Amino acid sequence: MSVSLPRILLPAALGLALVGCGGPADPDSPEGKRQAVFKQFLQHSEPMGGMLSGRVPFDGEALAGHAEGLAELVEAPWDYFPEPGDSRQRNAALPDIWQQPDAWQQAIADYRQAVADLLAVTREGVDSPEQVAAPVAAVQQGCKGCHDGFRR
Ligand code: HEC
């Protein structure tokens, strides 16, 4: 029994996971477009976090480049949040986005400000992790603060 039980349960668990997922969002849908932008957000914020935690060698110029990258994308996802209607695209957006539009706009504004603050620092030239630790942490908090409230 101790051997056969997992064999029975595993396919059932996988089946459930597939029903819940339903494949990636259509890349031309609003969901697919915003998710693609968020992936780019991550491609900039991840290496910055890595440099500050010591996981990736520190490179001030590269870090400044990632700050520029985030700044270029800072307005990119928000137009791709139309009322979901009967969309069946895979997504992790919470209904609070549409039910609490002021809080949603505030989360966007906080993030926008954090990115602008980081950019103001990195444009002066980045020589040390200490210089950028606080503004990078504020950007990461901007991501997390929004995800906590508005992402499943
Ligand atoms: C104002 C809100 C907000 C901010 C700020 C925000 N996100 Fe998100 N993020 C979301 C929402 C909502 C989703 C879910 C979108 C969906 O599933 O369609 C999401 C999804 C994602 C995803 C998953 C994309 C996918 O492939 O499904 C990643 C990765 C991500 N965000 C990274 C980031 C990073 C990194 C930052 C900061 C640099 C950030 N986000 C800032 C709201 C935000």
UniProtKB/TrEMBL annotation:
PROSITE patterns: CYTCII (PS51009), PROKAR_LIPOPROTEIN (PS51257)
Pfam assignment, any one: Cytochrom_C_2
UniProt key word Iron: yes
Keyword entries, A-Z: Electron transport, Heme, Iron, Metal-binding, Transport
tRNA processing is among the record's keywords: no
UniProt-recorded name of the protein: Cytochrome c
Species for this entry: Halopseudomonas formosensis
